[in-house]
Structures are given as C-alpha cells and as structure tokens.
Specification:
Elements: H1 2-23, H2 30-85, H3 90-93, H4 96-114, H5 124-153, H6 158-176
C-alpha cells in the first residue's frame, strides 16, 4: 500500500502546483472545481493507462510530455497575456474548458503510471482511488496556500501563476527528453 500512496503523492504534485498558481489570483468556485476535476482526471487517466496496458502504453509514453508541455505553456501564456493586458475581469473569464484543459495537462503522466498498477502489491482499483483522493486533497491545499499568498501580495501575481505553469510545462518536457 505504501508504494501506491507514494505514487499518488508523486502524481499529485503537478496538479497541486497548478492549483496553487490558480489560487494566487482566483477566488471562490475554483476551490471546489479544480481539486474535484484534478482528482477525477488523475484517477481516470490512471485507470485508462491500466486498461490500455501494453497495448497503448508505448504511445502514451511517447507523446505525453509534448501534450502536457503544450497545454501548460498555452494556459500559462494566456495568464501572462491577461496580466500584462491589465484586464480586471480575469476572474470571471475562466470557465469549465480552462479547468478541463488544466486537469488534462496535469494528469497525462497518470496514464503512463497506470500501466504499472498491476505491478503494485495492492489492487489497481485501490491505487486508482488513492491517486484521485490524494490529488484532490493536495490540490485543495495548494489552492488555499496560493490564495493566502495572493491575498497578501495582490492580483498581479497572475504573472507568477503563468510563469509557474510555463515552468511546469518546460520541466515535464526536459524530464522526458
């Protein structure tokens, strides 16, 4: 069980960092939506990886870093653009599409990790539940931490949030090249 918990925490870190970046400048509904979507997507992608197994594993592993890179850099760039543009209505512009893209970008590696679930000394179903639950909890805590810092330092922290997302995208790409 310890290995599954460690895997879940490892997979949750990107989602937690993205939630913290969003928490820097966002309020309200994202505290519920982001952790829920991040947890569901992490668990779902791990289940997908488990289901595809050897059949699709090499294809996911071959391109997952490029997909995550593109999505994270695109959303981070959008956040930077909005911050520099000085649009005061930013909080109302993020919609379900943005949240789903963030959830997808942070969960692609879970599909590759899902392939390894049969090797765990615990049921793959339990591992998937752990992945989703731990990701949701860590994302909520990350969001709250980001919100606390954002409240103290102001709304211009969207620049930092955008840079964090771009940095995560670059890190994912560099780790896989």
């Amino acid at each position: 069980m310890g290995g599954a918990v460690l895997l879940a925490f490892g997979l949750a870190m990107d989602a937690t960092a993205v939630a913290a970046a969003r928490g820097l400048v966002r309020r309200g509904r994202e505290l519920v939506i982001l952790p829920l979507l991040f947890g569901v997507f992490q668990a779902g992608m791990a289940a997908l990886g488990w289901g595809l197994g050897a059949l699709g594993g090499k294809y996911v592993a071959a391109y997952d870093h490029w997909i995550a890179f593109g999505l994270l850099v695109g959303i981070g760039g959008k956040m930077l653009y909005e911050a520099w543009k000085g649009d005061d209505a930013k909080e109302d512009k993020a919609g379900l599409g943005t949240y789903v893209v963030l959830a997808l970008a942070t969960s692609i590696d879970a599909a590759a990790a899902g392939i390894t679930l049969p090797l765990m000394p615990v049921s793959p179903v339990i591992a998937i539940v752990l992945i989703g639950t731990i990701t949701a909890a860590c994302s909520a805590l990350g969001y709250l931490a980001g919100r606390a810092v954002g409240t103290k330092l102001g709304n211009r922290l969207e620049i930092l949030g955008g840079l964090v997302l771009i940095g995560l995208g670059v890190r994912v790409l560099v780790q896989h090249l």
